[in-house]
């Protein structure tokens, strides 16, 4: 049934619509994702008033910095904690509230607004049509054509458990259901305005009680979570990565940018030769030899101290020990803050990647070890351009650029490019493009170092949150969840790698190593999915992701460990196999661990054949990158099924319990060292 057409749309600037440029200099603008820009423009063409609700630390004072990037929409700049209040003050009948957070959409519905899960759905509601959720199966290309033709916004686009048939779960206008000729189309009985869909992995093949199953696949069922519900409310636990959140993301249909090939395409020729240095980015043989085998004791010198602080054994900060890292616990924010502090103390320029979940803003914590790339500009050129940009969102008049270019010996280049004839906003955006001031890196932080041109990004990731949901009666807001293995073992490992690489390899690697501490993994990979979508929308030159999750449990002398490259999509699996081989070789180089168990499968079935089966598919943060088409691997302890010729699997019996307080420190350290050696190879 068609709804009454809307007359206004409020779009919250969140992980689904764009990103705020915010740092030490205050708010310096924002980036809207391509689908957001297109949807807002179309809405205005139909007579719908559009406004961006932008949460910023400065509140209304930031409005002037945001307007040049709004593409004609009104800007409502509000304090971080007042987003819902500001939206409801502008809301009412005939007003759509667009947000990626179901709690916020639920509150909007109560206030009489029309909740919409993604800006790309605005054309549907502007036409007075209802948004529905549907599951379609068929060939990959046919599903892709359907989504592009109908404007469907995908939540999930992968093969069905490794089979040849693909599954597209998407949000779309009701009329689009008639356009799936030749495809199997099943409308899902849920309200996508206020609910989110999640995959629930099945324990012992039984679906959860008192839950409506919307769709089934082997090993998992599709459920809906309402505005006030969390993953723990489903009431099923025990499997590794038991829940996967499905978030609307048009980028799932686009191929990824693998890495910047600017140098190879002669991109450096855009600049005058006198400000370019190509040879500085070439590593001498002496440096390459240093990458051979890092001393493990040096790599993990601070590992035990880090794991004690972040698992509640010793004080984390001035407030003392923490109790839990669960997103509903107050200590989660302390962990975010301390990670920023620890990374700054190492000499990094860390930042937050913010996302909304459950009505609250959470943060992934990110820090870069910039790569040298294939060429660099002479010292101070990029720094001077940044200083010009930081004076304000738009530099007026345009002639002010001419004096700056003269000082940088770029006056002739500036005149020959006819840049002085551009409007101020157009010129600024063009300069950002030319000097590669891109939204995948917070260049607006004055003291963050720039990577060289052509440097790709190698992610090293872990999740920072914890849970004890397998304990009966667990209250995530107050109860302990130390998570020493899951996943303090990985968190401390990434900190160790960051500390070692900064001390010994800063300025020596070709590509950027990006350290990522993802939040809300235990809620269904929410933080890593938000970040992977952010990188895809920004066309980031990602080389791949290497993630550490549960690397500390080892109850015997076998020292078995796993490297997971498997994915339902065979193309993502194939792209990940070279990275897995590098990790396998790195582990063998130390000789302290058993040979890596490398999982190459495209299915949850077929265990224990690791060429067919991979039990970690879509069950940890590496999956967020697989689903975007990037190479990714997961390193973990011996969790999944082993061959008959091997010892039995050794999963942690205290998984997701308050008793997760013990790890095998030497074992975990050795995995961290193997990961470090692999990253040096991948980035060097």
Automatic annotation (TrEMBL):
Q: Which organism is it from?
A: Algicella marina
Please give the InterPro entries that the UniProt record associates with this protein. Answer: M28_fam, Peptidase_M28
> In what residue span(s) does the Peptidase M28 domain sit?
459-662
What GO biological process terms does the UniProt entry carry, in alphabetical order? proteolysis
Q: What is this protein called?
A: M28 family peptidase
Listed Pfam families: Peptidase_M28
Highest taxon of source: Bacteria
GO terms, molecular function: metalloexopeptidase activity
**Known PANTHER family for this protein?**
METALLOPEPTIDASE M28 FAMILY MEMBER (PTHR12147), PEPTIDASE M28 DOMAIN-CONTAINING PROTEIN (PTHR12147:SF26)
């Amino acid at each position: 049934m068609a709804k009454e057409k809307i007359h206004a749309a409020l779009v919250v600037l969140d992980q689904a619509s764009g990103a705020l440029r915010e740092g030490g200099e205050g708010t310096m603008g924002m980036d809207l994702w391509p689908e957001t820009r297109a949807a807002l423009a179309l809405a205005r063409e139909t007579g719908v008033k559009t406004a961006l609700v932008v949460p910023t630390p400065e509140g209304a004072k930031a409005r002037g910095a945001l307007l040049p990037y709004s593409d004609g929409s009104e800007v409502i700049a509000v304090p971080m904690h007042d987003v819902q209040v500001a939206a409801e003050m502008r809301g009412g009948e005939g007003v759509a509230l667009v947000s990626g957070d179901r709690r916020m959409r639920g509150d909007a519905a109560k206030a009489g607004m029309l909740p919409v899960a993604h800006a790309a759905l605005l054309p549907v509601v502007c036409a007075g049509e209802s948004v529905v959720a549907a599951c379609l199966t068929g060939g990959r290309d046919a599903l892709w054509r359907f989504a592009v033709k109908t404007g469907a916004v995908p939540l999930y686009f992968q093969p069905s458990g490794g089979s040849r048939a693909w599954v597209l779960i998407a949000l779309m206008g009701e009329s689009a259901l008639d356009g799936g000729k030749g495809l199997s189309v099943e409308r899902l009985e849920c309200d996508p305005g206020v609910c989110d869909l999640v995959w629930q992995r099945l324990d012992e093949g039984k679906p959860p009680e008192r839950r409506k199953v919307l769709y089934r696949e082997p090993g998992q069922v599709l459920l809906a979570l309402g505005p006030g519900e969390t993953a723990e409310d489903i009431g099923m636990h025990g499997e590794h990565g038991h829940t996967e959140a499905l978030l609307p993301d048009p980028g799932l249909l686009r191929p990824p940018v693998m890495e910047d090939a600017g140098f190879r395409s002669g991109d450096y020729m855009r600049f005058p030769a006198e400000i370019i240095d190509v040879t500085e980015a070439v590593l001498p043989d002496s440096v390459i030899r240093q990458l051979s085998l890092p001393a493990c004791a040096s790599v993990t010198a601070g590992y035990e101290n880090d794991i004690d602080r972040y698992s509640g054994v010793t004080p984390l900060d001035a407030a003392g020990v923490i109790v839990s890292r669960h997103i509903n616990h107050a200590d989660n924010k302390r962990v975010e803050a301390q990670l920023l502090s620890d990374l700054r103390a190492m000499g990094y320029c860390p930042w937050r990647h913010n996302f909304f979940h459950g009505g609250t803003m959470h943060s992934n914590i990110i820090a870069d070890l910039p790569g040298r790339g294939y060429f660099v500009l002479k010292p101070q050129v990029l720094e001077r351009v940044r200083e010009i940009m930081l004076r304000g969102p738009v530099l007026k008049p345009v002639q002010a650029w001419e004096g700056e270019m003269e000082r940088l010996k770029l006056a002739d280049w500036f005149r020959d490019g006819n840049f002085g004839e551009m409007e101020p906003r157009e010129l600024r955006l063009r300069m950002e493009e030319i000097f590669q001031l891109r939204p995948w890196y917070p260049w607006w932080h004055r003291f963050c170092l720039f990577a060289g041109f052509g440097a790709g990004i190698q992610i090293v990731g872990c999740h920072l949150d914890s849970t004890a949901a397998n304990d009966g009666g667990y209250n995530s807001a107050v109860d302990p969840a130390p998570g020493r293995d899951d996943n303090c073992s990985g968190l401390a490992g990434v900190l160790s790698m960051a500390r070692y690489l900064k001390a010994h390899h800063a300025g020596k690697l070709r590509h950027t190593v990006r350290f990522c501490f993802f939040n809300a993994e235990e809620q269904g990979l929410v933080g890593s999915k938000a970040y992977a979508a952010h990188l895809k929308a920004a066309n980031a030159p990602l080389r791949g992701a290497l993630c550490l999750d549960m690397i500390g449990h080892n109850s015997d002398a076998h020292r078995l460990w796993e490297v997971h490259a498997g994915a339902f999509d065979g193309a993502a699996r194939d792209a990940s196999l070279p990275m897995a081989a590098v990790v396998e070789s790195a582990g063998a180089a130390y000789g302290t661990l058993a040979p890596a168990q490398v999982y190459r499968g495209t299915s949850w079935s077929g265990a224990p054949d690791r060429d067919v089966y991979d039990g970690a598919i879509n069950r940890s943060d590496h999956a967020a990158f697989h689903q975007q088409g990037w190479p990714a691997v997961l390193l973990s302890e011996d969790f999944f099924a082993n061959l008959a010729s091997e010892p039995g699997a050794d999963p942690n019996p205290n998984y997701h319990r308050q008793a997760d307080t013990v790890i095998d420190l030497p074992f975990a350290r050795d995995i961290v060292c193997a990961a470090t050696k692999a990253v040096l190879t991948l980035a060097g």
